[in-house]
Write a structure and sequence with these properties.
heterodimer; A: about 190 residues; mainly alpha; Rna Polymerase Sigma Factor, Chain: A; Arc Repressor Mutant, subunit A; 9 helices; about 75% helix; about 0% strand; B: about 350 residues; alpha+beta; Jelly Rolls; 4 domains; 7-stranded mixed β-sheet; 7-stranded antiparallel β-sheet; about 30% helix; elongated; RNA_pol_sigma-70-like (chain A); sigma factor activity (chain A); transcription (chain A); RNA_pol_sigma_r2 (chain A)
Chain lengths: ~190, ~350
């Protein structure tokens, strides 16, 4: 992207205003994405803080990029993995996001809540049964609207591998969702 | 032509056109997908599901509040701040963010420009700077014929030679810097304070230290910086702004000397003409070398004077020295040693380079 290329160039030249612009534009994205790995809010904001301060410190040595968002996501991901490796656990989790629900409450909630909320919870439930890697790729593609090229950058895999993983993941998602819908229908019918 | 009749949920989800329509329908795309639904009635439900999924995912709300965001942005900006403080606090609500962003760009640009212009002003010339200074300055001029001791507010001590003058801001530590302007000659004994580096500006040369002792001597054509202890970095003032191009910055260690030419703004590194012993020799024998291999001799000199000695250790492997030295000056010692083993030396870039044919 032309705009990113220009912004990044200015940032590398030490433009504070542009630095701030970049933080503002991407902070939320980084936070929401990081939250999937690191449920501890303070640890996460520290991580993002360190990511930006170290970028600023090294600004004159950084290479050029026209893909700021994937670059930042990737950097944050690496940072969190390093952080997590100390405690030897790396899980794509989400504790309190309403989209991701515990298995136990799912059935009762599906019936009692209103329609769209119900849908959301079903979707969250199905997502939850996927592997961390599969959840992550769905997140990057549909929540963050990254292109396959950008996802390839973030996950450090090839572009065809991204397309492959995405397709396989969504197929699995569909199968699980169909099963769930089927179960719910049966459950309601049996009442 | 795409084979929509074989499309499953995942294929719709991954179809860029479909995604675009689901998130942001336009009359043209609306028509296309409705028509497709008519054409393949069995796909209608799947399309509906795919659309709902995409919408749900796309509308996921961030759990970070605007206040949290502001707080975090301010925190990052604060910790990356170097010399100047941002004069604004951020308490905008979401509706104001776009307005605020515009403001920030304008203010930011103005700030950068004004900073640039400020930086231009500390010109090479002492009097030019001092009259242009934005803050109240203190000036000390040594009109006597003896050295003059000046205590700076931070506890550092300057020994100013006759006819020398220094200026510094009345409020000495500003923007996390301690800055002194010098004309003439002065010896600085800088109190260590790593968070507020000490800068000496003299005829276009910037000397930066944290805490150390060094001499700065200015004449019309050159500036000399000689280090007694610690580490000192020197840089041409004109290169201060372009941080990417810091290759002109030189690091000096004790007994090294930088000579800055005010004409072409080039800095060269050399060795003090009278290097001081930084430490005492480790061994009892001191500089009395009795049948010592040459590498031990050079190692001792290098350690005591802190001056790197470069030589071909393989070629000079068999060279040994039997000579008793004491408190001769460094260069006298070097002369004696090189004559004894039939070698020669030169000074280059703050190092001693020894050349030899080897010994039998």
């Amino acid at each position: 992207m032309e705009k990113d290329l220009l912004l990044w160039q200015k940032f590398r030249n030490g433009d504070r205003a542009v630095f701030e612009l970049i933080i503002r534009e991407h902070y939320r994205t980084l936070f929401d994405y990081g939250k999937k790995f690191l449920s501890d809010r303070d640890a996460l904001t520290d991580c993002i803080h360190d990511l930006f301060t170290s970028l600023w410190e090294r600004h004159q040595f950084l290479g050029s990029t026209d893909q700021i968002k994937p670059y930042l996501l990737k950097s944050l991901r690496n940072r969190i993995i390093k952080e997590k490796q100390r405690s030897n656990q790396f899980i794509f989790i989400d504790n309190d996001d309403e989209l991701f629900l515990n298995e136990e409450d799912i059935e009762s909630k599906i019936i009692t809540s209103e329609y769209t909320e119900e849908k959301k919870k079903q979707i969250g439930y199905v997502l939850h049964t996927l592997t961390p890697r599969q959840q992550e790729i769905i997140y990057l593609k549909f929540y963050e609207n990254l292109t396959n090229d950008q996802i390839a950058t973030v996950l450090a895999i090839s572009r065809p591998a991204v397309a492959n993983l995405l397709h396989a993941t969504l197929r699995l998602f569909r199968e699980k969702w169909e099963t769930l819908l089927h179960t719910v229908v049966l459950f309601i019918a049996s009442l | 032509m795409k084979y929509y009749e074989n499309y499953k949920l995942e294929d719709f989800l991954l179809d860029e056109q479909f995604r675009l329509w689901a998130v942001q329908p336009e009359p043209a795309s609306d028509e296309f997908w409705t028509e497709l639904g008519r054409q393949y009635p069995d796909k209608k439900l799947i399309m509906q599901q795919a659309r709902e999924l995409l919408l749900t995912w796309n509308q996921a709300r961030s759990e970070l509040t605007d206040d949290d965001l502001e707080q975090q942005v301010t925190r990052i900006l604060h910790s990356t701040e170097t010399s100047s403080k941002h004069p604004f606090a951020f308490t905008f609500t979401q509706t104001w963010i776009s307005v605020a962003a515009l403001f920030i760009i304008i203010i930011g640009l103005g700030w950068t420009v004004s900073r640039k212009m400020q930086r231009k002003q500390p010109a090479s010339d002492y009097s030019q700077y001092v009259t242009a200074a934005a803050v109240p300055m203190k000036e000390v001029v040594n009109r006597s014929d003896r050295k003059m001791k000046i205590s700076l507010p931070d506890g550092s001590v300057v020994s100013l030679s006759p006819a020398g003058r220094i200026s510094y801001a009345a409020q000495f530590i500003r923007n996390r810097k301690r800055e002194v302007y010098l004309s003439g000659e002065a010896f600085f004994d800088v109190k260590k304070d790593a968070s507020n580096p000490f800068f000496v500006y003299a005829h276009g040369l910037v000397t930066r230290v944290v805490g150390t002792r060094f001499l700065v001597k200015t004449t019309a054509s050159k500036v000399e910086v000689l280090v007694h202890s610690g580490r000192v970095s020197v840089l041409a003032m004109k290169d201060m702004d372009n941080q990417r191009d810091r290759n002109t910055e030189l690091l000096l260690t004790p007994n090294q000397q930088a000579i800055f030419s005010t004409r072409d703004h080039l800095i060269s590194k050399s060795i003090s003409s009278m290097p001081l012993e930084l430490i005492k020799p480790e061994t009892q024998s001191g500089f009395a070398f009795r049948d010592q291999p040459i590498h031990k001799v050079f190692a001792t000199l290098q350690k005591v004077y802190g001056i790197p000695i470069v030589y071909d250790s393989l070629l000079m492997e068999k060279c040994a020295l039997h000579v008793e030295l004491d408190n001769e000056p460094f260069f006298t010692k070097l002369d004696i040693i090189s004559q004894t083993i039939g070698a020669s030396y030169r000074i280059s870039d703050g190092q001693v380079i020894v050349s030899s044919e080897g010994c039998e």
